[in-house]
Specification:
By secondary structure, the chain is of the alpha/beta class. It folds into two domains: about 120 residues, P-loop containing nucleotide triphosphate hydrolases (Rossmann fold, 3-Layer(aba) Sandwich); about 80 residues, Helicase, Ruva Protein, domain 3 (Orthogonal Bundle), CATH 1.10.8. It has nine helices and seven strands; from the N terminus they run αβααβαβββααβααβα. The strands form three sheets. The chain has a three-stranded parallel beta sheet, sandwiched between helices. Strands 3-4 form a two-stranded antiparallel ribbon. It has a two-stranded parallel ribbon with strand order 6-7. The two termini are about 35 Å apart. The relative contact order is 0.14.
Length: about 230
């Protein structure tokens, strides 16, 4: 649990990577019916398997990491029924015989690892929380953002753009301005956007022959993040 941009989804991806498992994501933002999770009976003209079984089909395995993303954002009018399905999914005593209405036969989900995210837990049923181990994801301070940007985000976008560290460098003092006020928020999404914009504009200048290398400093920062 944590505010936007604090690394909840990245945390789930890291778990899957560490375990050597595939990861599939099920978004709960705007989820309006428990049938979307559970599936619909074949007697219905809109019959299809639920999101859980479709996720397993996508993963191609019985033991993926299933990310139940943004549990707190399902629609209020369907929240109680959705929470009821979640209880069955997350309870080891029940998910070994999970029944999708379309398949209409018990399916063993006990090998799957469920990871859930939420901005807050006020709208998540207590019975669901009882079946989860809650991990708090705190907001990043300025120093942490700076280090994450320099050591991970910046090299990532350099690689994606096909640039080398010799072609684009950001002065140490300029990182402070990228973090605050430009990247001022609990997470690092704004900082990521600013770094991506700098890299993209630099890549354009280099491929168009305007520059061969760029050093971002306080004097020219506004040209790249505007």
């Amino acid at each position: 649990m944590g505010l936007a941009g604090t690394g909840k989804t990245t945390f789930a991806k890291s778990i899957a990577e560490a375990l050597g498992r595939k990861m599939v994501r099920i978004p709960f933002g705007g989820l309006s019916s428990a049938l979307d999770l559970r599936g619909q009976s074949k007697t219905s003209p809109e019959a299809e398997p639920g999101m859980i079984m479709r996720a397993l089909r996508q993963a191609g395995t019985k033991n993926p990491v299933i990310l139940l993303d943004e549990l707190d954002r399902c629609t209020p009018e369907s929240r109680s029924s959705i929470m009821g399905v979640l209880i069955e999914l997350l309870d080891p005593g029940q998910n070994s015989a999970y029944t999708d209405y379309f398949i209409d036969y018990p399916f063993d989900l006990s090998q799957a690892l469920f990871v859930s995210t939420a901005n807050n837990t006020t709208t998540v049923a207590t019975a669901v929380l009882d079946r989860l181990e809650v991990v708090q994801m705190p907001s990043y301070n300025d120093l942490e953002k700076k280090e994450i940007g320099k050591r991970f985000v910046f090299p990532k976008y350099l690689k994606e753009a096909g640039l080398t560290p010799e072609q684009l460098r950001i002065d140490d003092g300029t990182w402070d301005k990228l973090v605050r006020p430009l990247g001022f928020e609990p997470g690092i999404r704004s900082l990521e956007r600013q770094i991506e914009l700098i890299v993209r504009k630099t890549a354009y200048k280099i491929v168009s022959g305007q520059d061969t290398s760029v050093v971002i400093n306080d004097a020219n920062l506004h040209e790249y993040v505007a």
